What we know:
By secondary structure, the protein is of the alpha/beta class. The chain is 30% helix and 24% strand. Strands 1, 2, 3, 4, 5, 6 and 16 form a 7-stranded mixed sheet that branches. It has a 5-stranded antiparallel sheet with strand order 17-18-21-20-19, sandwiched between helices. A 4-stranded parallel sheet has the order 10-9-8-14, with helices on one face. Helix 3 packs across helix 5 (175-187). NADPH dihydro-nicotinamide-adenine-dinucleotide phosphate binds at residues 144, 172-177, 179, 196-197, 202, 256-259, 305-306, 336-339.
Amino acid sequence: MYDFDLFVIGAGSGGVRAARMAAGYGAKVAIAEDLYMGGTCVNVGCVPKKLYTYASHYRYDWQDSRGFGWQAEVPEFSWDTLRDNKTREISRLNGIYASLLEGSNVKLYKGRAHIEDKNTVTVNGESITAKYLLIATGGWPFVPEFPGNDLVLTSNEIFDLPKLPRRVLVVGGGYIALEFASIFAGLGSDTTLSYRGEIPLKNFDKDVRDKLFQECQRHIHMQMESNVSEINENDSGLLVTFAEGNKLEVDCVLYATGRKPNTARLGLKNTAVELNPDGTIVVNEHFETTDPGIYALGDVVGRLALTPVATAEGMVLASNLFNGTSKTVDYLNIPTAVFSHPNVGTVGLTEEEATKTYSNIEVYDSDFRHLKHTLSKNEERTYMKIIVDKDTDKVLGMHMMGCDAGEIIQGLAVAMKCGVTKSQLDATIGIHPTAAEEFVTMRQARN
Ligand code: NDP
């Protein structure tokens, strides 16, 4: 009756996973993509960002090596090499995504899909029908309105600059702002971060935010309670005027002020799909929109804009539609990391959140110098924090700022998922000498 059982719009993390899983359950599936295979994460997000983070960290590794006997100075950095190697790797991944879809028997349409009615889309003028539609179109960087906002760049363009800017202003205080300010500072740009609030990473644990702020100040000019009012181009760069009265000349301004769901020009007016006030698509716990048979997941529904969340949603949806299940995604205790310098890793409740829900919490924390830095003389600190419900002994949250925080918190997130208690952490033998062992050796609650 229909050309396909499922037609997916958007070949990003969530869309590709849903399409492949659905095909694996025997469904006839097609997917449309008008930009890049793999979506934001692969092309202008997680993957290239992490590669650039590695690149920037070498500066500190060179510096640290001196205390261990290596006499070399920090060598010259080639932006062209990094950018071009990154582009080659991303092209390789694009090809892998396309062949994974092909290997799963998912038909790929290269073009923009437009919804004509709840069972029909058009791509490049071709009309295609499907029993179910899935909207997995992700998000797009948001830049506020102000004079000169056409002169700024976003994470869509920043990876492919023709050369490394000598002076950079990053605006925002979230994941992307912290990560890119750290990247540019490490690569050698004179970097300023302008944030409208008091201290970045608003919804993270306050102690972690404070510690990261102190660390960032060692590499980045941290300009807090700061608001850009205007940007003008002159002969020597971009002149940024702040509402507070100060000015700053830079070569590049990166706006990292959040992302908006990608719902424009999709044909939603031909459906009964409703939007939330922030523009995300309204879905129920099974990712069904307000128009039955049309589904949406990932950044476009905005539950948590993280790749592993979108893939989890994609797997649940495919299983429910074509494998007879009625699963939901458990959004509790989802770990996350900010790949700033140093990294932040977090799972569970912040102290501020825990205090609101639990009347009797205990906090364990530790602020120390990593063993490596006893010889490197690097001033960087490592910070770890555990929040416990004293009544049940259950661990409510674990937070870290320091080297490999994301890697360490990932393992602890498994324990949190299993409902780990403080006594169980205490009964765990540490691996010595590591930084991570601190999480199982903190015995004294903070007053
Ligand atoms: P975030 O939502 O993390 O941060 C946006 C920042 O911009 C906030 O600090 C916010 O301030 C500020 N802001 C918002 N509007 C304005 C404005 N009009 N003027 C000035 N500042 C403004 O968004 P990002 O763009 O950093 O990242 C988008 C999402 O992508 C993240 O939320 C995350 O889910 C995902 N991501 C995840 C990564 C990871 O897992 N490592 C890496 C990168 C992105 P305020 O704090 O005051 O609201």
